[in-house]
Design goal:
The chain is built from five helices and no strands. With about 120 residues, the protein is an all-alpha fold. It has a domain at about 55-115. The radius of gyration is 17 Å and the shape is flat. The two termini are about 35 Å apart.
Length: about 120
């Protein structure tokens, strides 16, 4: 149980740290946020849990296919805000658009036989 608490604390600490840095410098926060820390942590936790790198490799390969649809959020959100929508509706719409983009890519990959 303490292992899960440690995982939670480390992961939470990094997210809070990045958001605090972003308050002071949007560029520094963006650089840190652009580093795939969540993915890196997930691969580390997978390896520690299983002592097998194959699950982390499979996870990493899956992420590659989902990079492009994840860009939907970062493109749509600022456009929506600049067009006059307030923060939460813009974020909600951008999230929904990103989810649709994920499903679209997964659908296409499935049709192409890529898992």
């Amino acid at each position: 149980m303490s292992y899960y608490i440690i995982k939670l604390l480390i992961t939470t600490f990094l997210i809070v740290l990045i958001s605090e840095i972003a308050k002071r410098s949007s560029l520094a926060g963006a650089i840190l946020a652009a580093i795939p820390l969540v993915s890196i942590l997930a691969m580390i936790w997978m390896y520690i849990d299983t002592n097998d790198s194959s699950s982390a490799v499979e996870f990493s390969n899956s992420i590659v296919w989902l990079i492009v649809p994840s860009m939907t959020l970062f493109i749509a959100f600022p456009i929506l805000v600049k067009r006059g929508l307030s923060f939460y509706p813009s974020l909600s719409i951008a999230i929904l658009m990103t989810i649709l983009a994920y499903y679209s890519v997964i659908f296409v990959l499935t049709k192409l036989g890529i898992r």
